[in-house]
Amino acid sequence: MPRWLQFGIFFTVVLAILGALHVYLWARLVRATVLPPPWKQVATGGLIALALAVPLAGITSRFAPPIVGRLAAWPAYIWLGLAFIAFLLLVASDMLRLIVAAATRLTSEAPPSDPVRRTAMARVAAGAVAAAATVVGALAVRGALAPVAVREVSVALPQLPAAREGTTIVQLTDLHIGPTIGRAWLEEIVRRTNALHPDVVAITGDLVDGDVEALRDAVSPLGDLRAKYGVYFVTGNHEYFSDADAWLAELGRLRVRVLRNERTSIGDDDASSFDLCGIDDWTAARYPGHGADLPKALAGRDTRRASVLLAHQPKAVHQAALMGVDLQISGHTHGGQIWPFGYLVKLQQPYLAGLSRAGDTQIYVSRGTGYWGPPMRLGAPAEITRITLRRGPGAATA
Fold first, then answer.
1. Is pLDDT of 179 > 80?
2. Same domain, 202 and 286
3. Which end of the chain, C or N, has fewer beta carbons within 10 A?
């Protein structure tokens, strides 16, 4: 499918969702509160402007100079997060109101309709939701902008060679370099990653939200990453919104090795090594020349060797388990990013965050190093993950 058509479909879906969200906010915050003129017109116009600001910020960040894109993106994406939080609070308020109304009808005779009281209650609810959304939104922005923590994970692999006991893999994932995440932030992530003295650095997709020409300078600090056995990358779904082939070439220039349905040996010689495999993103088959192919990555592999798979989306673990992979390292979910969005993510992915098991295959899912869209994290802190491989019967701790 042509890239322009992919973008057109995505843009249409985004507009439909944004439109429905803002119509609901208008109905509950403006119409139901019966604001007097001119406040009703001001509030309606403001919601329309805020709704349009989000897609306009997306367009501006791709086609305007970077400084213009950043200036447009920050307020628009913060509003998007606030709107989502307000939506959830309003839905909760409506559900509570319906439960109270139903209980009242069951226990007593329904009171006569009182428009004045109904309007007063709507205004109280709207004011409470607006205040709560502002507080929660501020906490979520603080969570997204806080220093990224290092998360220590220990994984036992039965077939790990004795010489590789204690091998460390530092995982970076879902950095989403783009309109609100730039070079200075990435420089700090690279500095902290290097300070961990990793044996391997694994970047498991969704590195960028934008084209190479716009983000080349912002991404260039990746060239300073240092690891004993190299820096590796697999594509995420967002690379395919931003000309994946151009980004793969750029990563090669930065000395980052892209694993595309292939494997490499990690260690000093075959007898003391394990296999590191990587596959394209689960959705990559929509794009010419791309597509996840785990059988290809594992073809001819010595099954007596320990294997670690880099796959952006956790759902790849089902096939990995059938094919005897020991450990899969993934991202994509952001741990939900803004609670309670994680419950929706779990409808689409088998694992949300942390260390889990699918049959004999262990899987670690990072909550992500950056964030996507709203610069907010609530109940799902970002992480730089240091995975230490141990010899053992497959017990795993995090």
1. yes
2. yes
3. N
